[in-house]
Design brief:
The strands form four sheets. Strands 3-2-1-4-5-7 form a six-stranded parallel sheet, with helices on both faces. Strands 6-8-12 form a three-stranded parallel sheet. The chain has eleven helices and 14 strands. The protein is α/β, with parallel strands linked by helices and 320 residues long.
């Protein structure tokens, strides 16, 4: 990778991935792209940035040509809960936008990274230790767009030789940028509410197990995959990756180890509950471990301690 374009650079993953890639490859070699310019004073504004619309192929093509881009990280998407409210937009961004990126990559010989999700699975998928290769029949528009994206990336690699690679991310936990309407958002919100109010009202029920990952590991996974020896990649697109699996009760109890007076109650959101019920309890990520050395650094105790510390610093509120 020499010149990189991040599409969706202002999102939860994009905002941190852009900064990490700039640190690794040089500020001038990583272009942040989104629908709007980055806010004045933000770290994204410290390097090259472009306004582009993933649903308009010409804007992507122009940025790629202007900056001599050789690698595109396509992070544009509507997250699961928002996508259910705006299914047409979810399809336009997730599928039509994906097609635009792949066509530009085919014409300009760019490599492409695209994240998929545990949302690409459905109620007929094995829920425990979900295999790398298994049935994928999602019941949400978010999941449908992710499966379509996986298939498109496979097709463009096999048919046109486009260097496509991707991960099936679990829920991502971060203290830097808040998530934007996903089913796993509670696992970030709980830390802010714990520090601000010592209590949290959870929108998912007890027993709703979901795979999760700390942002530091999520960023490393994307970069490590794109740097991996292509000769070793049997799957190439949409590797299962995970670091931990828990339900709300387990997470709350881990927080209580640091904040004994923390309390959690439930007010279940039926839309999020229904979505979570169709997603795996835990994924088998052995293919990623074997083919390119995936190995997360943060498990639940380490993630919880770091989140409490970092969110406390961010809010300026002591939690001990």
């Amino acid at each position: 990778m020499k010149n990189i374009l991040i599409i969706g650079a202002q999102g939860q993953i994009g905002s941190e991935l852009t900064c990490k890639l700039r640190k690794k490859y040089g500020v001038d070699n990583v272009v942040s792209g989104d629908l709007y310019p980055p806010p004045r004073g933000s770290k994204l504004a410290d390097g090259p940035n472009e306004v582009l619309d993933i649903t308009v192929a010409g804007t992507i093509y122009q940025v790629v040509k202007d900056h001599k881009i050789d690698t595109i990280y396509n992070l544009a998407a509507l997250l699961s809960a928002v996508a259910e409210q705006r299914p047409q937009d979810a399809w336009n961004v997730g599928v039509n936008g994906m097609y635009n990126v792949l066509e530009v990559a085919r014409e300009t010989k760019c490599a492409v990274f695209t994240p998929s999700s545990i949302g690409s699975f459905g109620p007929t998928t094995p829920m425990d230790n979900t295999p790398q290769d298994t049935i994928q029949r999602p019941t949400t528009i978010y999941g449908v767009t992710k499966v379509t994206g996986e298939l498109l990336c496979d097709y463009y690699y096999k048919r046109f030789g486009v260097d496509t690679r991707g991960l099936r991310y679990p829920g991502i936990i971060s203290y830097v940028t808040l998530p934007g309407g996903g089913t796993t958002d509670y696992a970030v919100e709980i830390f802010y509410e714990a520090i601000k109010h010592r209590k949290f009202v959870c929108p998912l029920p007890k027993g709703a197990f979901l795979d999760m990952m700390y942002m530091a590991d999520a960023l490393d996974a994307a970069i490590d995959l794109m740097e991996a020896d292509p000769a070793k990649l049997k799957h190439r697109n949409s590797f299962n990756v995970t670091a931990m699996s828990f339900d709300p009760e387990i997470l709350a109890n881990e927080i209580k180890k640091h904040m004994p007076d923390f309390e959690m109650t439930y007010d279940v959101d039926p839309v999020k509950e229904a979505i979570a019920a169709t997603w795996p309890n835990s994924m088998d990520d052995s293919a990623a471990r074997e083919e390119w050395g995936w190995n997360p650094k943060f498990e639940l105790p380490e993630m919880t301690a770091d989140m409490l510390e970092k969110v406390s610093e961010k809010l300026g509120i002591a939690y001990k």
